[in-house]
Write a structure and sequence with these properties.
The chain is of the alpha/beta class. The chain is built from 16 helices and 17 strands. The strands form four sheets. Strands 9-10-8-7-6-5-4-1-11 form a nine-stranded mixed sheet, sandwiched between helices. It starts with 9 loop residues before the first strand and ends with a helix. It binds iron/sulfur cluster. The site of iron/sulfur cluster has 11 residues, from loops.
């Protein structure tokens, strides 16, 4: 059983599946925003929150962090958010020093939302900047203007947030390295506490995939993308943002604790359609369909589409996969203590030796971690190590 009493603190992720836009590269689950549909969603969400948190323990469940992602959470009505938090607080307890993040799109963020969310205890906001090059974003279907980005930062500062983070994408159609430089310089000038620096990925069956297939759009080649990542990582570091995960950079003390919980294998609850969770050694996913999600909860059932209990091999794979993405890397002693000889065999195996010799992995002071060159090949290196499990 997944949802049974759980002793330790947990993290909570909420998926808000509404957007006013359909970005051509996006494969997140989302539906067009309407206030009526959002009201039905929140009603179902409150049932789900009650059922899950009540099953995790009779005492209030300690919540270390919350994260509201989407979709476009900045479209949420503050009244609905307030009511949902009443349910959370009825069954859970935000721990002292909790982190509570919400994502916001620059063009839809309003002063009312920024202030309302801050008043509810949200203390970290992530602005989806993506790029200041509005022309670069147009072929991807994003509508924001440059002034929306500056306005969003201004509104968040005015509302009192002292932890404002931002997302940047690189590898955009026809993008040049000098434009990546400009994006980072402009963003750093706004002094966010944290920058996620992601490569644009082409997800199957998206409009972007079709446009590329038909030759209507061209992405930079692999070497240019690798140079963008290397250049961008160094520039971010020069600007005082330290890489703590492949795509994540933070000012000192501003690492996203919620994301770190994912990468360190800590338990988290996923609420909302298409949300994923991991607790009591089970992974699960909710139905990625709003009608099924609402219908099942109205019928008194959890909207689970997938549940899996992790076996020994899967747990070992996850431990390697997740920790190697972080700058700290694999804690060798901890991995061997938890997984015994199998872990030892991987840590002393051929694949690891090969990557240490080629300079992609560093094995020192009890940790195995990616080198600067290794971060460029993170997915391949991780796949090779995990293949030995
Ligand atoms: S706003 Fe975000 S979630 Fe919505 S379509 Fe665009 S990328 Fe996807």
């Amino acid at each position: 059983m997944i949802f049974r009493p759980y002793p330790g603190p947990i993290s909570l992720y909420l998926h808000f599946p509404f957007c006013t836009n359909r970005c051509h590269y996006c494969d997140f689950y989302k539906v067009p925003y309407s206030k009526n549909e959002a009201a039905r969603y929140f009603q179902a969400l409150r049932y789900e929150t009650e059922m899950v948190l009540a099953a995790l323990g009779h005492e209030p469940v300690d919540i270390a962090s919350l994260y509201i992602g989407g979709g476009t959470p900045s479209l949420m009505a503050i009244d609905f958010l307030t009511e949902w938090l009443e349910t959370v607080n009825a069954y859970g307890r935000l721990m002292p020093g909790y982190e509570f993040t919400i994502e916001a799109n620059p063009e839809s963020l309003t002063a009312e939302f920024a202030v309302g969310a801050h008043n509810l205890g949200i203390n970290r906001i992530v602005i989806g900047v993506q790029s200041f090059g509005v022309g670069l974003l147009r072929p991807l279907g994003r509508r924001q203007k440059m002034k929306d980005i500056y306005r969003a930062f201004y509104l968040c500062r005015l509302a009192g947030y002292d932890n404002i983070a931002a997302d940047l994408i690189f590898g955009l159609p026809d993008q040049k390295i000098r434009q990546v430089k400009l994006d980072i310089e402009r963003l750093a000038a706004l002094e966010p506490t944290h920058i996620s620096f992601y490569q644009l990925t082409v997800e199957p069956d998206t409009r972007l995939a079709i446009d590329i297939d038909k030759g209507r759009i061209a992405l930079p080649d692999e070497d240019t993308i690798a140079s963008m990542y290397r250049f961008g990582s160094h520039l971010l570091s020069d600007k005082g943002y330290l890489r703590y995960e492949v795509s994540n950079f933070a000012r000192e003390g501003r690492i996203c604790r919620h994301n770190l919980a994912y990468w360190t294998g800590a338990p988290y609850i996923g609420l909302g359609p298409a949300a994923h969770g991991f607790v009591n050694n089970h992974r699960y996913a909710n139905h990625a369909d709003l009608e099924s999600y609402i219908g099942m909860l109205e019928a008194g059932r959890l909207p689970l589409a997938f549940v899996e209990e992790l076996d020994f091999d899967q747990r070992l794979m996850e431990a390697i996969l997740l920790s190697l993405r972080t700058a700290e890397g694999i804690d060798k002693e901890k991995l061997i203590r938890t997984f015994g000889e199998r872990a030892l065999a991987i840590l002393e195996g051929k694949a690891k030796g090969r990557y240490v010799s080629s300079g992609h992995l560093i094995d020192e002071l009890g940790f195995v971690r990616l080198s600067d060159a290794g971060f460029l090949l993170a997915d391949t290196i991780i796949a090779d190590l995990v293949a030995q499990v």
